[in-house]
Specification:
Blueprint: H1 2-16, E1 20-21, E2 24-25, H2 32-46, H3 66-77, H4 97-108, H5 127-136, H6 147-157, H7 159-162, H8 182-194, H9 213-223
Antiparallel strand pairs: 1-2
Helix pairs in contact: 2-4, 3-4, 6-9, 8-9
Length: 228
């Protein structure tokens, strides 16, 4: 009886939340058509592929942990995280629970290439397909700073939650940093420093206050080179 209950609870966990099985990232079942429809609204700011904007005003959402995205939406709804652009959308009326699940999972399943594919000289060139592919490519420009020092700081403070190369950890609900625009990351760090946004680390919620601007620049310099 006890063993059956354990199996049942494990089954519920798999259905209700994404988990990390080794290196496998699991996206929950969702309504793809509804996710696509909601994405039409999100695309106005975050891009049609969830790639964000080059100036870093709006972050990349593609490929992120769906549980993390859902949590941020909930924080916007409860006003524990303030974002003016999200105010009209982050409500239970506009984004009820099923919609949050569908858009979060839809975004998690989008894969953005870091480079254009190599053309096959034996295949007919398709300019339209090439143009569409170019819209998906997301490769972060190098940020100025000392890359080696940035790597040391990252490995000391960030790696345990955000992954070896900033790819994020789904089991810790820590977002990806590599592939995210440096200007966006810098703005979020400044918000955490000033207390306008809380840091999720229970060990050191004020971690960035102990770092100099140069330290932050060095970390960003290292991160910006991880998707080369």
């Amino acid at each position: 009886m006890m063993k059956a209950q354990i199996y049942f609870l494990s089954f519920l966990v798999v259905l209700s939340s994404p988990i990390l099985l080794g290196e496998e990232r699991v996206i929950p079942e969702y309504d793809r058509y509804n996710g696509e429809e909601i994405m039409d609204v999100c695309a106005g700011c975050h891009g049609i592929y969830g790639q964000g904007t080059l100036d870093g005003e709006y972050p990349r959402l593609a490929g992120m942990n769906p549980a993390y995205i859902a949590r941020q939406i909930e924080l916007f709804k409860t006003r524990k995280r303030i974002n003016i652009a999200m105010l009209p959308f982050a409500t239970d009326h506009e984004l009820p629970g099923d919609d949050v699940r569908d858009i979060s999972s839809y975004l998690a399943g989008i894969e953005l290439p870091r480079h254009m594919s190599v053309l096959d000289p034996n295949e007919k060139f398709d300019p339209l397909a090439r143009l569409e592919e170019s819209k998906k490519v997301t490769n972060i420009p190098h940020y100025p700073g000392d890359v080696e020092k940035g790597e040391r700081l990252y490995r000391q403070e960030c790696r345990s939650c955000h992954g070896l190369k900033g790819e994020g950890r789904w089991d810790k609900m820590a977002p990806m940093l590599t592939g995210q625009y440096s200007s966006y990351l810098l703005r979020q760090i400044e918000k955490i420093r000033t207390g306008d946004r809380f840091h999720d680390s229970p060990d050191d919620p004020e971690i960035f206050r102990s770092y100099s601007d140069e330290d932050i620049a060095n970390i960003l310099a290292w991160l910006s080179r991880q998707d080369d």
